[in-house]
Amino acid sequence: MLPPEMSESLPLSVLELATVGSGQSTADALAATTRVAQAADRLGYSRLWVAEHHNMPAVASTSPPVLIAHLAAVTRRIRVGSGGVMLPNHAPLVVAEQFALLEALHPGRVDLGIGRAPGTDQHTALALRRDPAALSAEDFPQHLLDLLGLFGDPRVEGGLAERFRATPAPASVPLVVLLGSSGFSAQLAGQLGLPFAFAHHFGGPNVQAAVALYRDSFRASPALERPYTIVTANVLAADTAEEARRLALPGQLMRLSLRLNRLRPVPSLEEAERDPERAAAEAMPSNAIVGDPPGVVAGLRQLAADTGADELMLSASTHGVAERVRSLELVADAWGPAGLEHPAA
Fold it and tell me: Is the pLDDT of residue 343 over 80?
């Protein structure tokens, strides 16, 4: 584990969900994500990932490769990737071709975060996969191996790579990162020698056990010599702790709506303050780090110390894009430039 005083040197990154707020269009949401990406690039954050979700009124990021192509084109140095592509929804060859093309367009800046959850409900997953037999994730390890083989991993024998290539003449390949919130993905990432990103922002209690399992399972690979762990967190900073708690209310109501399966756009601050379920949302257990800059930095240092993370990835959940950008500015300034350097992984 890292001592808290050392964790400030860890790189910080950003997870962007391209959220659609009340009264906003998809175009508004994507313009906001573009603004967040450009701010993260300017401020020195290491990477920015976008998620894959389907049939959700609050999330505009349905196609990570399309959004990544746009964000990489309007930023300068930040790594851009998926957090993640839900591999069971797609043929491995299609994913490999998409991300090989992105890597050719933006060499050395593309991450392929891979997940095995559907990123949606079962009915939508069926519409995406078209075959009820494909709803199971049992084939996920083989599909992941096929993907690595298509990118030229010399350890993979047989499979799709015997007949296909992700792209005809690659000069580099995207960084493949395995995402998860359970021991299954942690162990698989370790066995394959891939970086591992734990979805701590989901609110689950298993981060320390999963990270320990990943490290215990780790085997060096052509991509990675030692374990590399990214831990995500819900983080919102404002000039005062009181203001941060106020701005966090729309995100709390969104998490409640997800828990109750009553999906809706992210409410505005005014709507959230008078929402009849406000008290229930505020009473929900949460591991979010919300406060003024010193308080947020202290929370991030503690998370790094508790998990031994090699990198922390911040997700800000609120209605307004100005508030999300301001949060990134405050955290970057308080964290310091040593913790915003480009990661080795």
Answer: no
CA distances from 116 to 87, 124, 129, 134, 188 (A): 6, 15, 13, 12, 12
Residue 175 sits at φ, ψ, to 5 deg, of -80, 125
For the record, the structure tokens of 119 come out as 């990123």
H helices within 235-320, ranges in order? 241-247, 249-259, 269-273, 278-283, 293-307
Pairing verdict, β 79-86 and 311-315? unpaired
Q: What is the pLDDT of residues 153-212, one digit of tens each?
A: 999 988 999 999 999 999 999 999 999 988 899 999 999 999 999 998 876 678 999 999
What is the helix (H) or strand (E) element at residue 115, kind and residue range?
strand 110-115
Global pTM? 0.92
In the chain, the domains with their CATH numbers are 4-337 (3.20.20.30)
- Point out which residues pair with 19 in neighbouring strands: 59
